Amino acid sequence: MANRGQSWDAQVHSIADLREYGSKKLPKMYRDYYNEGAMDLVTYVVRAEVATQCSGNANTVAARLRDNEAAFDRYKIKPRILVNVDNIDTSSELFGKKVSRSTRLNQSIC
Amino acid sequence: MPLGFSPSAMHRLAHPDGELATSRAAASYNIAMALSSYSTESLENVKAQGASNPYAMQLCVLRDRYTTKQMLQRAEAAGYSAIFLSVDVPLLGRRLNEFRNNFHLPDGMEWPNLLSNGKAELNQDLSDHTQETHSYEFG
């Protein structure tokens, strides 16, 4: 599988995989705390029918589409083309320090 | 590779090394880390695992202003570069999973940044969801 980004774990290839795999290892009390939110989880649920079908099911949270995440999905990355990519540098400066990657950080449970 | 770690609470619920491991990962990849006030390792110990990567501290303005002030001072002294101030929590949302699961911190786990063992905040009477000590108050 040349010319592709590397996977570092046989089972975890994405953040979605990481959430699913990690969630299975956690006791319910902690799994629900990390994965859920307040009241009806409105910011989590985009397609009500999905949530309804799965309500009461252990996979409820994993099956739900999350509005908070979907908001980020609506950002489109526009690739530049026909530019020299011999030396790719994704580093940037954040809080006055050089970092390998930078983006806006968003907050989760606190 | 993550772009940076946003603040999330109580990493030791997921792994015994908790926020120390998160900090080591951020340092080894030279990415930013923001730490929750409700971390289960102290802000000083978390920062001590870092390298040249930047750190930010998440803060709320608590009803007990001393708690907020000492955390701000400690974060500055420890070398945190920025504050993430939460401004949308005049009241904490009702997280029903916490009520249903009787969510609590296991013995031996605390909130060192808040100088609290979390017992008073999490083991409250369900008829009173107002958090006296760590409620948020603005203005």
User: Between the first and last Cα atoms of chain A, what is the distance in angstroms?
Assistant: 40 Å
The number of strands of chain B is: 4
Largest sheet of chain A: 2 strands, antiparallel
| Portion in strands of chain A | 5-15%
Shape label of chain B: globular
Which two protein chains have the largest interface (Cβ within 8 Å of the partner's Cβ), and how many residues from each?
A-B, 28 and 41 residues
In short:
The complex is a heterodimer of chains A (about 110) and B (about 140). Chain A has helices spanning about 15-25, 30-35, 50-55, 60-65, 65-75, and strands spanning about 90-95, 95-100.
List keywords for this structure.
heterodimer; A: 110 residues; mainly alpha; two-stranded antiparallel ribbon; 34% helix; 5% strand; B: 139 residues; alpha/beta; four-stranded parallel β-sheet; 5 helices; 4 strands; 29% helix; globular
Descriptive report:
Chain A has a domain at 15-78. Chain A has 110 residues and is mainly alpha-helical. Chain A has helices spanning 15-25, 28-35, 48-54, 60-63, 67-73; strands spanning 92-94, 97-99. Chain A is extended. Chain A is built from five helices and two strands, in the order H-H-H-H-H-E-E. A two-stranded antiparallel ribbon of chain A has the order 1-2. In chain A, strand 1 and strand 2 (97-99) form a beta hairpin. The model of chain A is unreliable at 46-54 and 56-64 (pLDDT under 50). Chain B is of the alpha/beta class and 139 residues long. Chain B has one domain (4-122). Helices cover 29% and strands 11% of the residues of chain B. Chain B is built from five helices and four strands. Chain B has helices at residues 18-28, 43-48, 65-78, 96-100, 119-122; strands at residues 4-5, 32-35, 55-59, 82-85. Chain B has a four-stranded parallel sheet with strand order 1-2-3-4. In chain B, helix 3 (65-78) links the parallel strand 3 (55-59) and strand 4. Chain B is globular and about 40 Å long. Residues 125-139 of chain B have low confidence and may be disordered.
